[in-house]
Amino acid sequence: MGISLTKDSIDLGIVTNNTDAMVAFYEGLLGFERQGVMEMPGGSTMTRLMCGTSLIKLVQHKEAPGAVAPPGGIGGATGYRYWTMSVSNLEEITAACADAGHKIRVPVSEIRPGVRISMVEDPDGNWVEFLEQS
User: DSSP code of 76?
Assistant: First the structure.
């Protein structure tokens, strides 16, 4: 028996100590649609942003957690290291991220015939992959 989905996408939670910069990146630069901000138990807040049908939840705790994820993207550690968005404007969005001062970790590259990617860092150093198929 496999999973029986009720939604065609996933929701992703990103814990941050820098909500303003993360919102500026995901909402302001990438154009995600804000669904609202909600208080959570213990004084944490969650900013909810839509990316297509995926919900991106930016969570900031009242007190910063004692540990942070190690940097380095794909090669930096095990566990969740990046996430992918399929786009139709790869070069444009990659250039916009670079122009806004975000590190481009993988420049626009063809990884197989008809498939190109780039990878950028969000303000917290999380890697975001943009994928374009022709």
Answer: T
Tell me: the pLDDT tens digits for 61-90?
999 998 988 888 999 999 999 999 999 999
Of 122, 9, 123, 87, give the one whose Cα is nearest residue 55: 9
State the Cα–Cα distance between residues 67 and 76, nearest whole angstrom. 15
Residues near 86 by beta carbon (within 8 Å), at least 6 away in sequence: 131, 132, 133
| Full-model pTM | 0.94
Describe the chain by its helix, strand, coil percentages, rounded to 5.
20, 40, 40
Instruction: Supply φ then ψ for residue 48, to 5 degrees.
Output: -105, 125
What are the backbone dihedrals phi and psi of residue 22, each rounded to the nearest 5 degrees, phi first? -65, -40
